[in-house]
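Hey, can you fold this one?
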Amino acid sequence: MGRRSYADPAADWIDALREATDELMADPATPGMDFAAGNGPRFFTLTYAWRYHRRSADWALRGRLIELSGRCAGGAVADPFFFDQIFAREAGATKTTRSTRTSPIARRRAFDHFFRNWVPLEVVTTDSGAVRYLRGSHRGPTYRARSFDEANAVASLYDNAEYFEELPDFAASYDSYDWLVGAVERAT
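Sure. Predicted structure:
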């Protein structure tokens, strides 16, 4: 039997990514991190999943989002994704993601455009953890990095850099900002 592509149709690659994520979370050799640290349902993260799992690689290097990113940028061909990251919160997880400003993950060849694609593998509602994007945040300012893991010392390396601004407490004044909320249903 020939090699199966997990990029099409949409439901197949969503299922393949879900299975790959489950397998990566179950594999003790995977260099991921659990932000819940064994205290209840997991909040798992792994960067560069495509380097550790064949189906993740198939999606990152040949998946439909490459074409779709290019179409969003006026029809140019987009490069394969050079960075992917899994954030998987199991049902009942109490750890939440902090406000962050992240770098884009796909580069358009013809110009200097970048894309960040969010690929939810389950139904996501505003109550269950939908991603919230601050409208216009791509124009700056750039805030100091903060980790989801309070014990992570890497973020403190940015504290004295003059070109980063202090991250506001968005939760304290949530309604005063213009948010785009990514609530989605399962692709069929």
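The beta strands are 33-34, 43-47, 85-89, 106-107, 114-115, 131-134, 179-182. Let me know if you want another pass with a different chain boundary.
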